[in-house]
Write a structure and sequence with these properties.
The protein is built from six helices and two strands. The chain is mostly helical and 148 residues long. The radius of gyration is 15 Å and the shape is globular.
Length: 148
């Protein structure tokens, strides 16, 4: 874990909350397509937003909303079924994980996978975390071969 002055970096917890809120926003986007800006506005009043890294949340929502088709194309190479057949919660989590693996080299691949698995354990179907772990591990081998 990142430490600053002997303390755990508070941004780490804030990013976890931002991922959770982004997952919920991307889930909503899948069910009811609309402007990503509306999601950021709607979620700005969520109770958990006070503890979230707001900038990271906004980055995730915007990047995933704008790049969904491209992310889904990549996902086809690592998943065993088309993205449209994925559970919306798990699909949202995979989109976040793929975005972070591809676009956020500052976030170690193990953190991306662990955060995704944690979200899936909390919000996904029973044992879905195993699937998320496998898909993101395959993606990390390609997107982050120097780290894997």
């Amino acid at each position: 874990m990142s430490k600053t002055s002997g303390r755990i970096d508070p941004r780490l917890g804030a990013r976890s909350v931002a991922r959770k809120l982004a997952m919920q926003a991307i889930y909503r986007l899948q069910l009811n397509d609309g402007p990503w800006q509306d999601l950021i506005t709607d979620f700005s009043t969520e109770e958990d937003m006070a503890r979230a890294d707001r900038e990271y949340f906004a980055e995730l929502v915007e990047a995933i909303a704008r790049g969904r088709e491209s992310l889904d194309e990549q996902l086809k190479g690592w998943a065993d079924r088309p993205p449209a057949e994925l559970d919306p919660v798990e699909h949202a989590i995979l989109l976040i994980g793929l975005h972070e693996l591809a676009q956020r080299p500052d976030v170690p691949w193990r953190v991306v996978v662990n955060e995704s698995v944690s979200l899936t354990r909390r919000f996904g179907a029973t044992d879905a975390h195993k699937y998320i772990n496998a898909v993101l591990d395959r993606a990390a081998r390609v997107l982050r071969p120097h780290e894997h």
